[in-house]
């Protein structure tokens, strides 16, 4: 494939070239230092065309039907409401091999056939929240390409949903009825993150159970806070199979976004997310420098060996590693530009 400059890549993204969009996301996902520099340049070039999409996080317990829900909702948003829909579907990475199945395109078969849809499966890389490290940057690429609805599907494990809630406008949590004592199994912190809650699979013999579960969750939301003026996440039911409740659910999601805009809290919310993003990137760069600095690597190996024979405590060892890092800082080249071929 012919080498493409960052300027050309940005122009092709603006034109909606699917191949170049995919290539750009591969670039921002790369952990190679040279690619990170190129990704930063790309993000600067496309910045004026970003920020206009409706960002929605979709998470929930395993088995809630997140991918099936996104498939049905995405098709409806395109066919009936005229949206361009992008999906960032984050798959869990193996803690042993680092690999992922990345099978979301097969679970979203109807949506994948739509011209105005773009589905990008990405490995979580083991990061908290099951959200790939570059999910934020990928959202910007998709916004610059003209997608006005960006759905971020997360792994849905424990309380780690905080990661996706910190990068979207509306956080939609999916639950399913008949999972034992579901109220006991849901952590309060997760309920506090949710902007809208949906009980899925509300069809057939499960429809009544879903309605009961929705009532129980509505009561639980009232018990979380005694402040009657504080917004509580509405709880609805829907079926990805029959389509029942999907329109009402999306209307509720849009209402939440409208409330953020009318109250003037959308801009501060995104600013706070940018601030968190900034410090996350600083932390990632520091950790990468710790990992790659020859002096720090040698010190770390020595510290670990002395930990093994108990001649050094963890506290003393951490101080030695930090001193080695501080000594290496003046010789490091932060933000060096390196010209390498873009990932294909």
TrEMBL record:
Q: Which domain of life is it from?
A: Bacteria
Tell me which Pfam families the record gives.
MeaB (PF03308)
Q: Which UniProt keywords apply?
A: Kinase, Transferase
- List the InterPro entries: GTPase_ArgK, P-loop_NTPase
Matches recorded under NCBIfam families: lao, PRK09435.1
> Which family, according to UniProt?
Belongs to the SIMIBI class G3E GTPase family. ArgK/MeaB subfamily.
Q: What is this protein called?
A: ATPase/protein kinase
The scientific name of the source species is Tessaracoccus flavus
């Amino acid at each position: 494939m012919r080498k493409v400059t960052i300027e050309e890549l940005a122009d092709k993204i603006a034109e909606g070239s699917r191949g170049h969009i995919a290539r750009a996301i591969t670039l921002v996902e790369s952990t190679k230092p040279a690619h990170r520099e190129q990704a930063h340049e790309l993000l600067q070039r496309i910045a004026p065309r970003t920020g206009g999409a409706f960002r929605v996080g979709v998470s929930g317990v395993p088995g809630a039907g997140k991918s099936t829900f996104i498939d049905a909702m995405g098709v409806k948003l395109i066919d009936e409401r005229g949206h361009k829909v992008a999906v960032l579907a984050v798959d869990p990475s193996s803690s042993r091999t680092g690999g992922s199945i990345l099978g979301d395109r097969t679970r979203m078969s109807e949506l994948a056939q739509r011209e105005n849809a773009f589905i990008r499966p990405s490995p979580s890389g083991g990061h908290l929240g099951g959200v790939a490290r570059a999910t934020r940057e990928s959202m910007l690429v998709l916004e610059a390409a003209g997608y006005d609805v960006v759905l971020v599907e997360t792994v849905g494990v424990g309380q780690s949903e905080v990661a996706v809630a910190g990068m979207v406008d509306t956080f939609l949590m999916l639950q399913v009825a008949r999972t034992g004592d579901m109220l006991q199994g849901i952590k309060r912190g997760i309920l506090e993150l949710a902007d809208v809650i949906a009980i899925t699979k509300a069809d057939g013999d499960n429809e009544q159970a879903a309605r009961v579960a929705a009532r129980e969750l509505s009561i639980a939301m009232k018990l979380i806070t005694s402040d009657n003026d504080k917004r509580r996440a509405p709880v609805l039911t829907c079926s990805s199979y029959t389509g029942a409740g999907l329109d009402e659910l999306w209307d509720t999601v849009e209402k939440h976004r409208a409330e953020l805009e009318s109250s003037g809290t959308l801009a501060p919310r995104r600013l706070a997310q940018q601030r968190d993003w900034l410090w996350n990137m600083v932390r990632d760069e520091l950790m990468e420098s710790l990992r790659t600095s020859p002096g720090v690597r040698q010190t770390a190996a020595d510290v670990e060996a002395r930990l093994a024979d108990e001649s050094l405590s963890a506290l003393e060892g951490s101080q030695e590693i930090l001193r080695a890092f501080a000594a290496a800082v003046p010789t490091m080249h932060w933000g060096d530009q390196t010209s390498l071929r873009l990932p294909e």
